[in-house]
Amino acid sequence: MKRDLEVVGARDLGPLFTDNAHRMVGQDGGYSIPLREDEALWFFGDTLIGKRTPGESLWFPGGERIGPEDMSGKHGIEKMLTNTGLILRDSTGAGGCKNHEYLLDPNGGLLQLIPLLPDEDPDRHRIWCGHGCLLGEDVNLFFLKVTMLAEGPLAVNFEIDGAGLAVGSPKDWKFSRLEHRGSTLWWKENDPKFGAAVYADDAAGYVYVYGVILRDGVQNCYVARAAPDRLSRFETYEYLIDDTPAWDRDLGKAIPILTGMPHEMSVSYNKHLGCYLAVHSLDLTGRIVGRTAENPWGPWSDPIDLWKVEPVYEKAPAYPPQIYAGKEHPELSGQGGSVLYLTYIEFEEYFPHLIEVSLR
């Protein structure tokens, strides 16, 4: 029987992965992808190695905005990687987040899972994390390619060029971007960028992939599906075109199913609620919300607040607060799904920040 989504308690468990042996001083993203035997891959975006200057913003060192270029060798940052990963073991409950091991390159440094291609300039281009899934022996990672901009309303500004899929093996963590019609960007600038969330429905025999785009000032989410053995074949994807439901391979017919999320989110089946649960930041308001549905495509309920981020600053940043990347990590959940674990990113803190939420 389906239960209403109702929060009875929540607590802040603090930033994750701050205590590490690699001088990693900040990273965003933080998607989790269950593997096998109580292990999960966590996939991050921009990751900074080096040191922070106490009382100083990463993004406005000395009171001056950083440029769009690679931060390596600047302002105490020794190296910048545009995506990294770690393995989280024994991951049930919040305590499991302490047992982690970063993926490393042959020299013992943090490994960039999806490297830049020869024609991509590290001072202009970045490959940021999306969600993914393990299918058979392959790890599938969706990604965004972005071009950095010198000006704009945010602390760090960019435009999204498109999204694609990289496939690799957990034996060596080497990933290759898949091409369609000569491009590794399956979904281009004017398309929804699929990979914002992935849900593999074994019973239905489909992997559902969610994509987001800003249209008319609103972040809209769409959903595609593909058979697990065809996830690597772009031409087999079908898109929801009405809520009967009907599906079509023509992306131009797709309809939005959700609004108000930045690019990142999560979708899972919650046994306690007896339905599907989507979790996302509500724009940049600091609200982390949940929505429920009886199917992975919806229709989705109105948002219910799971947590409200209230950042406290020693020194107010020189830009409006940026709170984003809200999502659930279902493999951490306890008590049959009545205890949820969420993360978000606050840009000044710049670590995945863990929240525990208890449901009625």
User: Rg, please?
Assistant: 19 Å
CATH topology title: Tachylectin-2, Chain A
Reported CATH architecture: 5 Propeller
Sequence stretches where pLDDT stays below 50 over 5 or more residues: none
Average the pLDDT over all residues and give the rounded result.
95
Oligomer: single chain
Number of helices: 0
Counting DSSP E segments of at least 2 residues, the number of strands comes to: 23
The CATH class is Mainly Beta
Q: Please give the domain count.
A: 1
Estimate percent helicity. Answer: under 10%
Distance between the termini: 14 Å
Going by helix content, strand content and strand pairing, the class is: mainly beta
Beta-strand fraction estimate: over 45%
Q: Which series of helices and strands comes N to C?
A: EEEEEEEEEEEEEEEEEEEEEEE
Record keyword descriptors for this entry.
mainly beta, Tachylectin-2, Chain A, 47% strand
Would you kindly provide a written description of the structure presented here, covering whatever features stand out?
The chain is an all-beta fold and 360 residues long. It has one domain (7-18, 117-359): Tachylectin-2, Chain A, CATH 2.115.10. The protein contains no helices and 23 strands. The protein has strands at 7-15, 24-34, 39-50, 77-81, 84-89, 100-102, 125-135, 138-149, 157-168, 175-177, 193-201, 206-215, 218-226, 238-242, 246-248, 258-259, 266-270, 275-281, 287-293, 304-308, 323-328, 339-346, 352-359. Strands 11, 12, 13, 14, 15 and 16 form a six-stranded antiparallel β-sheet that branches. Strands 2, 3, 4, 5 and 6 form a five-stranded antiparallel β-sheet that branches. A four-stranded antiparallel β-sheet has the order 1-23-22-21, with no helix packed on it. A hairpin with a 7-residue loop joins strand 8 and strand 9 (157-168). The two termini are 14 Å apart. The mean pLDDT is 95.
